Amino acid sequence: MRQSSIIDIISPVMVGPSSSHTAGAVRLGLLARNMYNGMPSSVTFRLYNSYAKTGKGHGTDKGLLAGFLGLSVDDVRIRNVFDLDIAKEFEYKFEYVEDFNRHPNAVDIIIKGIPNLMISGDSIGAGEVVINRIDEFSVNVNGKFNTLLLVYKDIPGMISKVTSKISVNIASLYCDRYAKGEDASMCIALDGELSDDVIKEIKNLPSTYIVRYIKKLES
Fold first, then answer.
1. Whole-model pTM?
2. Cis before 206 (ω within 30)
3. Separation CA 110–CA 97 (nearest Å)
4. CB–CB of 207/184 below 8 Å?
5. Which of 36, 68, 152, 178 qualifies as a FRET site for 79, CA 20 to 30 Å off?
């Protein structure tokens, strides 16, 4: 197992002045990109509290957009991301909100396209992040594990139907639903990789709306 160094503890290798506001923002954008897995028509980044107050100075706006465009935390293009050609492929804007019910470094990434999706997350320090909500569903995705995400109609036996197709070790399993028999979500963190064939089998299960396989983020 790789041991953490003092450099890892202080801050990840990154472009920008702040691990929470810059590196964390990039990772939130990357996770949202991987969850959406398509080309949007527009994206709204809604920043809360500390993110809203100091985000521009710390490059949070650049980090969020750069991550959603697929740039890594150490990509020097983050500094000029607004000028990149890839930043002109869809419309985007930033909103700034104060809401003390939310984490100090919280963001909603509101994606318009096919489908429409809102992805909410927090930057929790030292570049660590968590996606905690997709639309109205509670989830738990931190980028440390390969993760299988499903949104589906709640039917009996759905969890066993999905997990029976997975041959690698399951690190954690998190489920949420509106109500019995209504829409539900499932978030499975994995110690290993899933093959394309397994993902295809899961996508073909009845009553599934969204199936995403989200690769873990690089350290």
1. 0.86
2. no
3. 14
4. no
5. 36
Distance from C-alpha of 219 to C-alpha of 202, rounded to nearest angstrom: 28
134-193 confidence digits (pLDDT tens): 998 999 999 999 999 999 999 999 999 999 999 999 999 999 988 888 999 999 999 999
Three-state secondary structure along 125-176? ECCEEEEEEECCEEEEECCCCEEEEEEEECCCCHHHHHHCCCCCCEEEEEEE
Closest by CA to 70, choosing from 55, 83, 81, is: 81
DSSP state of 113: S
Q: How far apart are CA 55 and CA 199, in angstroms?
A: 37
- The residue assigned the tokens 């995705």 is 141
CA gap 48, 216 in Å, rounded:
25
Q: Which helix (H) or strand (E) holds 119?
A: strand 117-125
Write out pLDDT tens, residues 165-179.
999 999 999 999 888
Structure tokens at 176: 């949420």
- Measured at the alpha carbon of residue 210, what is the angle toward residues 113 and 64, in degrees to the nearest 5? 50
Q: Are strands 208-214 and 146-153 parallel, antiparallel or unpaired?
A: antiparallel
**Angle of helix 24-36 relative to helix 60-68, nearest 10 degrees?**
30
- The Cα–Cα gap between 173 and 46 comes to 28
